Amino acid sequence: MVSRVIPVEPFDLVVFGATGDLARRKILPGLYRRFWAGQVTADSRIIGAARAALTEDAFRADVKAAIDEFVSADKRDAAMIDAFLARLHYVPIDAVGEAGWKPLKDMMRPGVVRAFYFSVAPALFGDLAQRLHSHGIADTGSRIVVEKPFGRDLASARALNAVLAQHFREDQIYRIDHYLGKETVQNLMAVRFANILFEPLWKSEYVDHVQITVAETVGVDGRGAYYDKSGAMRDMVQNHMMQLLCLIAMEPPYHFDPAAVRDEKLKVIRALDPVAPDDIVRGQYLAGAGQDSYVTHSQNPASRTESYIALKVHVSNWRWKGTPFYLRTGKRLRARESEIVVTFREPPHSIFDDTEGWRENVLVIRLQPNEGINLKVMIKEPGPGGMRLTQVPLDMSFAEALGEEGADIPDAYERLIMDVIRGNQTLFMRGDEVEAAWAWTDPIIQGWEARGDRPRGYDPGSSGPEDALMLMHRDGRRWREIRE
Asked: What domains can you pick out in the chain, each with its CATH number?
């Protein structure tokens, strides 16, 4: 199967914070890969903007080093790299002052898409938006891309939305969540809405429960001070996992367009029940396996910030009433793994005598690693000796199913940046969606802070705190194993 690469319109993309870690690891190498694939046209330009007083040659040298480090060898063609670097420009700029803004304005070209990527701290979003407007750099068709965290509570999210709204329309603001750019996440919508097979069963009558897991092996070493002010709830649940929950639970939109998809996601968030204290488990990783503990990494021995959280969530609408959604995410766990598991109910009556080996049908959507979809079904065990049942997987790895092209799945940032240039907001969060997520999240955080709850300790390389296992065991269910 050959994937189609459709070039985007010529553009000027300004990356604020172009010397930062995100730009170096993801944004600039991703743009090179799109250039290598033929999606970025030769008359497009990428303009780096940051505080550092670099020359254009020095900036290009830094980007080349990033490409050498973060792009696979089969795509590092010397001629292509040189052609890409020729599209790069750089301007030193003061986000909170006036230095650099006139040179940046002079670089803008008429007749091409203008996009501005705010790869900076959220505290600078308002300053950048104001200066782009006051210096006449952004026009009525310009787009801005803002990174998370988009606020740290409802009040700050509302304030940030209000600041951006002073200078840009909602259809110009792209709040990026890289999880929505993952190929498997987008395929989740295709599996649900392009096939009649699952949609009739996609409701509480047939689904026993849903698990969403985002497990990481890394700790917070190197950014412990920042992380200690957010924690797993703010860093992962309020945005990434909320988006995954919405895509699983949403109603079919009337059409696959930004307004329709985001309207349905918003309905899911507003239908979420408050979460009871007994349905929340928070944890902190301990020292072990030659690694320091969370409190050491955070440089805060009294820290009550969670590096792990598990929740039992209910969506109160006709489709999902009574079906629990179990969410868990954590640092320093057994393996790096992100997946959605939909467990269907057992048939109401079994005609077979052999029920000891009975297993429910399970749909597993793997987001990382080895993106793909796995459906577990019951069949007769081969061989003589009666009707013995066994469970087998119908497995589709994208890399295997799609051949060489499937093995070359674009990075999430690549897809999302190209959507910005196209003007397609389907995979980006809308302002009211962000605020609704915080309106649900804030009372949960305020509750454990008022109670003075402390996170449970858990061993590095484990599946998390023992209490998280009990969260499901008491319901007669089990977490799917995090595999090494």
From this structure: 11-147 (3.40.50.720), 180-410+430-473 (3.30.360.10)
